[in-house]
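We now fix the convention by which a protein and its fold are recorded. The integers have meaning only within a learned vocabulary of local backbone shapes. The record below shows the convention in full.
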Amino acid sequence: MDSIPFFETADGGRFPSVGLGTWKIPSEVLPDLIGDAVSLGYRHFDCACDYGNEEAVGEGLRRVVSHGLCAREDLWITSKLWNTYHHPDHVRAACERTLKDLALDVLDLYLIHFPVTLNYVPFEERYPPGWFFNPEAENPVMKHVPIPLADTWGAMEGLISAGLVKRIGVCNFSTSLLRDLLSYASIPPQVLQVEMHPFLTQQRLLRYCHEQGIVVTAFSPFGASSYVPLHMADASESVLIHPVVTELALTRGKTAGQILLRWAVQRGTVPIPKTQMREHLRENLTLFDFELSDEEMARIDALDRGRRFNDPAEFCERAFNTFYPIFD
């Protein structure tokens, strides 16, 4: 497999244009999966404390480096600060725990996972802490605490000066939150990670990020597929089966997934598809031997319906008994 093309971050970092997401991948398969992915050409792995599997990812990373499949400096590892660790007193400890679990000395990118600030839960009490303040309560809920973003961001900047991370960014932020952050950040966010697929193109947000020199990572690039088992989407909402996408796949001799990932990369975003199957790992990297025309790109753009599958205003109330909108 030829090397994956890169996007360049504001500091000159070489951000692989396709990565492997690790959300919902079982720990028992991850060490071998990381090895398979690296052997096929993956160098970018997207992780998070909340996924509960960073130790397994770390085992996989240890193996690929110790076996000489790739050097550490050739890998791009992203992780995320969880909602319960936003207070400046807890940011560094959270990052250090992630580094320990991933068996790394430094992260290539560390992101604020959500603009959601929840009450601190000590590691020894529960890790990862999840969304509930006390899951054993009779009626468990999330417990919001007011923590200014400026305070959290200052502590994130401190991770760079401490040599624990190379660059920092945010997830699930709107243009308004980004604009506010940019007004006082000593170190601007280099990456924004958000849900993006043809049913949620977020054209204006993407344009704003490009104008500000912020690289955009697109999670859930296939749309509904990760959310159907969670009852957050219906199978009929899958972008993979939309007639426009299947027609383009047939015409191009590609899979629907390859069409969607090519669209994502071609519009200047970094998709992070998730799979446990080796054939899909290989398929998801076979994107760089064709290019969609302007007309084909426009046809996919036109599928936008503003359909957000990962929305705390909906899933927090349904799953965690707490109304917590962030996008409104």
